[in-house]
Amino acid sequence: MLCIALLAALIGAGGAACSEDAPPASRAVRTCGLRIWHKPASAEAHVEVVGDWDGWKRPGLALQKREDGWRVAAVAAPPGEHAYAIVEDGVWLADENEPMTGEHDGHEVTVATVADCERPSLRVDGVETTAAGKATVRATFVSARSGRPIDPSSIVARGRDGSTLGVAAVDASRGTLTFEASDLQRGKYTYKIEARDASGVVAEDARATVWIDVTSGSGEPWDPRDAIVYQVVLDRFRGDGGPLAPPPSPSARAGGTLAGVRQALESGEIEALGATAIWLSPLYANPIGEFPGNDGRPYSSYHGYWPIASRALDPRFATEAELDTFVGAAHARGIRVLFDVVPNHVHEQHPWVAEHADWFGQDCLCGQGSCDWATHIKTCRFAPYLPDLDWANDEAARAATDDVLWWFDRWDADGIRIDAVPMMPRSATRRIATAARRRYAHPGHALYVLGENFTGPGNYQSLRHDLGPYGLDGSFHFPLMWTIREAIALETAPLSSIDASFRAGEAAWEGAGAVMGLMIGNHDVSRFASVSAGNDGGDTWSAPPQPIDPTVYAKQRVALASVLTLPGAPVLYYGDEVGLAGRSDPDCRRVMPAEDALIEAQIETRELARRIGRARARSRALRRGGLTTLIADAERFVFAREIEREPSSGEEGSKDMAIVALVRRPTGPIDVPLPEATPPELFDVVTRTRLDVSSKVLRVPAEPFGIHVYVAADSSCAK
Q1: For the domain with range 5-114, which CATH number is right: 2.60.40.420, 3.20.20.220, 2.40.10.340, 2.60.40.10?
Q2: CATH (one of 2.10.10.90, 2.60.40.650, 1.20.82.10, 3.40.50.300) for 121-212
Q3: pLDDT of 16 higher than 60
Q4: Which of 42, 140, 396, 611 has the fewest CB atoms within 10 Å distance of its CB?
């Protein structure tokens, strides 16, 4: 059972944490059963725990009082997964100290995994790497309850390609292991660590992930703040032979393939944007043919969101060999691969529908008749042929979670984008995120679990519900997206509203540790360029022309600059770097234009995105720095990104810094006081010019739709 740091003081005060058995000081030993902690609102509260081990019997097991106000109960539950709830004065509560939840009798309850204490296990304690290709992996052998030590001759850390890590040190008395490797090439190496104890009992294995990554030029492990995510709708990006012709109808297949995306990857086109991650639309096998939409028009499954098999690729996109090649090519370039997973629903042709009818609810159709989205969002389905999984069904929840893990196991995924988050209970995303982290995340290796929670302007709180250390790492920042459209594309709000929207979001999910996905658009909304051009409304099967107005592209550049420089993880929807037009779905999913079809304004827009994207990838301040607003008014938004330099830099107390100035339609220049830590000379990565700011004052020019991103003149971004 997992304990949070908050309990450390309680543990030291007396009583074992999370277990009935305390391990010996010299060696980690697996523990049995559950130990459940809870601190009620009042000392007089009646607190009990009820669970599946006795059929949810009431009254449940009483938690014993402690002098410090906490209550504790020991449950001799057998190995495996167990659901329970804490009942305080009649109110059912999930255990705040456990990450995973489930559903029982209309309540969100805790789901904990009790270890098999008769079998040893392995855990990864940390991975350190250098840009020069050296890796050190530290792990611990956790003995079975018997306490038998590890058999040193049984230790192996085997890579996906069959290679092994060298065993550098073993302390059998303490169960500590150290592995080392050197001269590794840039890329990702995933190792399965295996061992057995002195009596021959095989331990539960562990995964260690080694990234040799020179993107940041530092020894810091990657985390989602370092991401610039490039989003690709596979069918609409490129084909085996390059650019695609438009499909015969907006909802028909265009013929895009993974091989087409790989060509853009290998050519450097995606890396040129500073991208460090790529999000692929679903690769699941999908049905052949067309199906009626709620508007009566025929739709194909070109988008991939109608799974008919959860562990099979759609051959129209890729073979297994092609996906292996693609993932390898991405990892060799330091680019993470995020798979799009669809745990909310399947297509009616999926075998589960016939074999496990009890896994699906009897849902109404979203937005049809009395089945409004607001009231029925968790119980409605997108279409008659897209039944929703019932996540309250334990078998369905486990099967769906295992299928998501398959994408990590088989394809060495680095993270996932979870579709339709608000249509599922929070227990769904918590179960998926917990399962993935327990198997693949460890100190030195972070996953990115990003959720799609579509919401409207100003609706920050709805995003907060699924975030947090036990939930999603981040969600798409739709409220900020809408604000950027109002302030830049439509000019109906002041530029300062971008600052206000960002601050409102940070306040709403304070403490969640979230890294939000920042975007100007995605595959479900009209393209930013068409919003700027004023022709994003109307029939989404009728395509407005690609704009030629230079102002449309000037606005596009300011919008892109905003998401590429604010804290979070920028998400670039394919085509936005060239201002691709489009009304809402399906028109917003046009094919990626060929190079010779681009006008000069589109090329200039892409070049701007590339310059700022590369600067962010190289600048620790732009990736991880805090946000200090220097000026935010109707026509200007100027801010600083700053962070303490790494101790290894040898410049204690100094800061890495970047200054960003975004301008709309100012009436004149303005002088902006700069933070004291600003270096005396700055370099503008947009204009490629140097600027003396020894006076600690920045003059922001009055050019309309101006963009300036300043970094220290002696930084790597200035080269």
Answers
A1: 2.60.40.10
A2: 2.60.40.650
A3: no
A4: 42
* 5-114 shares its CATH topology with 621-718: yes
88: helix, coil or strand?
A: strand
Handedness of CA 55, 400, 378, 293 (dihedral sign): negative
β-bridge pairing 697-700 and 670-673: antiparallel
Nearest CA-CA partner of 350 in 302, 313, 309: 309
pTM of the model: 0.94
Taken in order 18, 20, 25, 26, is the CA torsion positive or negative?
negative
Report pLDDT digits (tens) over 84-126. Answer: 999 999 999 999 999 999 999 999 999 999 999 999 999 999 9
* 363 confidence band (pLDDT: 50, 70, 90): confident
Q: Which CATH number fits domain 621-718: 3.30.930.10, 2.60.40.1180, 3.20.20.70, 3.20.110.20?
A: 2.60.40.1180
Residue 362's pLDDT band (cuts 50, 70, 90): confident
Determine the 3-state secondary structure of 454 from DSSP: coil
10 Å CB burial of residue 596 (0-12, 13-18, 19+) is: exposed
Q: Vertex 611, ends 609 and 616: CA angle to 5°?
A: 90
CA dist 415 and 441 (Å) reads 10
CATH superfamily of 224-618: Glycosidases (3.20.20.80)
Q: How far is CA 604 from CA 46, 530, 554, in A?
A: 67, 18, 9
**Predicted pLDDT of residue 715:** 80
